[in-house]
């Protein structure tokens, strides 16, 4: 409006069309500026600039044999999406993880993925119905409660795949996950989550397996630009090997995240999801 008043004071002559375009341009500029301000005003706790969650799938033995000890050393709590039968293989280790404050999430009962993976052919999601999937997730929750004494509030889609059926009968099971859980996390995604916009039932999960810290740092810097939530996802926790999140990388990542000058809130998926939900209500 100030600009418009200045233009009028200068007695510059404009046709009606030009005047309309100027007013429209000023209005749209203001709208864009307001949108940009809203994008950058999400308030993370204690003035933090971004949030990071460390999440791990499948309840693999290395997670409680080696991984949780490193996290505990730094007082960092991770999110572990478990399959009940795998929990049974290291039950005491998982009970200790729960006692240490790590979050336990649901990763289904049978870990169904596309039948294009030969190992998943007998539990192919192409052959599932929504009812079968819902029952499986409820069964996994029941077993997690019986084994570990906790309610699983968060979920990770096996293989990051969110559909069941095939062809014209393909259906998303995101709505099922949305009704049963606080959040659902994907896999092999390309970017972090915008806290003002993200669908908690379809959180992006970016792979940290097989990477050194200098490969993770660009993810963090990208998230910092927009004040986003970076959910990192891994499997094994060790020194090397297939689908392994390197403990050496985690050590550097945690130390970087805990340095106050970097402005990072590092917390489990459920903790951050609840915070985002409360801020956006």
From TrEMBL:
InterPro entries: Glyco_hydro/deAcase_b/a-brl, NODB_dom, Polysacc_deacetylase_ArnD. It holds the Pfam family Polysacc_deac_1. It comes from the Bacteria. One of its GO terms (biological process) is carbohydrate metabolic process. Residues 50-281 form the NodB homology domain. GO terms for molecular function: hydrolase activity, acting on carbon-nitrogen (but not peptide) bonds. This is Polysaccharide deacetylase. The lineage of its organism: Bacteria, Pseudomonadati, Bacteroidota, Sphingobacteriia, Sphingobacteriales.
